[in-house]
Amino acid sequence: YAPEFQITTEAGVVAVSNALKRLVYGYYGPYEEDKLVPDFSTELALASSPDALLDHLNTLLFSGGMSTDLRGIVRDALVALSKKDALRRVRTAVMLLVRSPEFAIQK
Questions:
Q1: How far apart are CA 53 and CA 86, in angstroms?
Q2: What angle separates helix 68-80 from helix 86-98, to the nearest 10 degrees?
Q3: Which residues make Cβ contacts (< 8 Å) with residue 100, sequence separation at least 6?
Q4: Could you read off the pLDDT of 49-63 as tens digits, one per residue?
Q5: Would you say residue 4 has pLDDT above 70?
Q6: Residue 63: what pLDDT?
Q7: What is residue 8's three-state secondary structure?
Q8: Of 67, 71, 105, 74, which is closest to residue 91 (Cα–Cα)?
Q9: pLDDT band at residue 17 using 50, 70 and 90 as cut-offs
Q10: Exposed site from 40, 55, 71, 85, fewest CB < 10 Å?
Q11: Alpha helices in the chain (DSSP H)
């Protein structure tokens, strides 16, 4: 077993994943006026170019340390989505990245 995962439980992984999904999709909070809604304006401007979006998210979420394997997986998923649905592209990219083992492990 990898030592970095020994302090992680299945319940913790699922709880964090669900919380991040609620945040990314804009329904994190008990009341409408208290909801946390992410500002994806920068990401939406980059959504038409999967490479530009991934470069930005790599810096933002991984401090430039995203593996080429993870980048390729997410890029393939983004290319399969319509360029017309920029918000879906951004949300998909963010969700795939924050649910990856690379994101879960602090390097």
A1: 11
A2: 150
A3: 70
A4: 999 999 999 999 999
A5: no
A6: 93
A7: coil
A8: 74
A9: confident
A10: 85
A11: 10-24, 41-46, 50-62, 68-80, 86-98, 101-104
Distance CA 78, CA 75 (A): 5
DSSP state of 34: G
SS3 36: strand
Cα-based distances in Å from 27 to 47, 58, 104 = 22, 25, 22
Is the model's pLDDT at 9 over the cut of 90?
A: no
Contacts of 40-44 with CB under 8 Å at 24 or more apart are 40/87, 40/90, 40/91, 43/90, 43/93, 43/94, 44/86, 44/87, 44/90
